[in-house]
């Protein structure tokens, strides 16, 4: 009797399972690529729509909302850090919208795996590493531009100099932790949905209710994680262009 109950509760949840195709010996996660392109298309569509409807005399609601968001973020950054850091706002807001779209994709019905949802591309560590790499490159280039190549390298060897290797490791680990933070939160949400959908059929009403509740909560988490990523982008930019960057 015990073994039968255990069998009912047993469930296999694949980790890192993707629709793949190998090209030249390199495996490509087709589901991540597709959903990433879909998220990018949403951001581009929003941008082209705003451009087409741009008006100073009678702005529409989307334009007012977008300008209000960018303006509010810019004002907060300028008030808290200074006007020089407002340059990071367009990148941070763009990343916020892109990550939010990527996080919310799995709300809609999809065709990949044995699930009723599209997988969020941010639940694939390859996607989050790519986003973090963009932040890493931009912030380090801005650091070299602000302090010069000599000042950039010198920052790693500030007193006490024996901490230089640790400072280098810290700089390298910034994009890694940025990527893993986003990936971990989104991936865990997918696991929770898989667990809920694995309930026996006689729990169907509860399964539907829990799925809806969890997806609403997951959407909220998606907003928070997109905001944290954008906020850390601005903070990393501040650290990069400050004299005491390292």
Short description:
With 246 residues, the chain is mainly alpha-helical. It has helices at 2-9, 30-52, 61-81, 89-104, 125-156, 164-197, 204-241, and strands at 20-23, 26-29.
Characterize the structure shown.
The chain has seven helices and two strands, in the order H-E-E-H-H-H-H-H-H. The protein has one domain. It is globular, with a radius of gyration of 22 Å. A hairpin with a 2-residue loop joins strand 1 and strand 2.
Number of domains: 1
- Provide the succession of SSEs: HEEHHHHHH
Output the structural class: mainly alpha
Q: Provide the residue-averaged pLDDT.
A: 79
- The span between the termini is 62 Å
Contiguous helical run count: 7
- Radius of gyration from the alpha-carbon trace, in angstroms: 22 Å
Q: How much of the residues is beta strand, in percent?
A: under 5%
Number of strands: 2
Uncertain spans: 1-9, 110-116
Largest sheet: 2 strands, antiparallel
- Strand line-up across the major sheet: 1-2
The gross shape turns out to be globular
Helix % is: 55-70%
């Amino acid at each position: 009797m015990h073994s039968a109950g255990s069998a009912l509760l047993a469930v296999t949840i694949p980790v890192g399972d993707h629709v793949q195709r190998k090209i030249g010996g390199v495996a490509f996660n087709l589901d991540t690529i597709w959903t990433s392109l879909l998220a990018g298309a949403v951001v581009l569509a929003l941008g082209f729509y705003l451009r087409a409807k741009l008006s100073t005399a009678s702005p529409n609601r989307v334009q007012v909302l977008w300008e209000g968001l960018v303006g509010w973020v810019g004002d907060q950054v300028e008030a808290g850090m200074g006007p020089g850091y407002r340059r990071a706002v367009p990148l941070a807001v763009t990343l916020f919208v892109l990550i939010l779209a990527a996080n919310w994709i799995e709300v809609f019905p999809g065709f990949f795996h044995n699930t009723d949802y599209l997988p969020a591309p941010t639940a694939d560590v390859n996607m989050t590493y790519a986003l973090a790499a963009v932040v890493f490159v931009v912030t380090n280039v801005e650091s070299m531009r602000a302090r010069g190549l000599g000042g950039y390298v010198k920052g790693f060897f500030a007193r006490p100099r024996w901490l230089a290797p640790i400072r280098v490791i810290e700089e390298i680990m910034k994009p890694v932790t940025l990527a893993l933070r986003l990936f971990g939160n989104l991936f865990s949400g997918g696991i929770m949905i898989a667990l809920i959908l694995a309930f026996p059929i006689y729990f169907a009403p509860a399964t539907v209710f829990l799925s809806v509740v969890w997806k609403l909560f997951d959407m909220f988490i998606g907003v928070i994680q997109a905001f944290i990523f954008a906020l850390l982008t601005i903070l990393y930019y501040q650290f990069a262009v400050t004299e005491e960057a390292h």
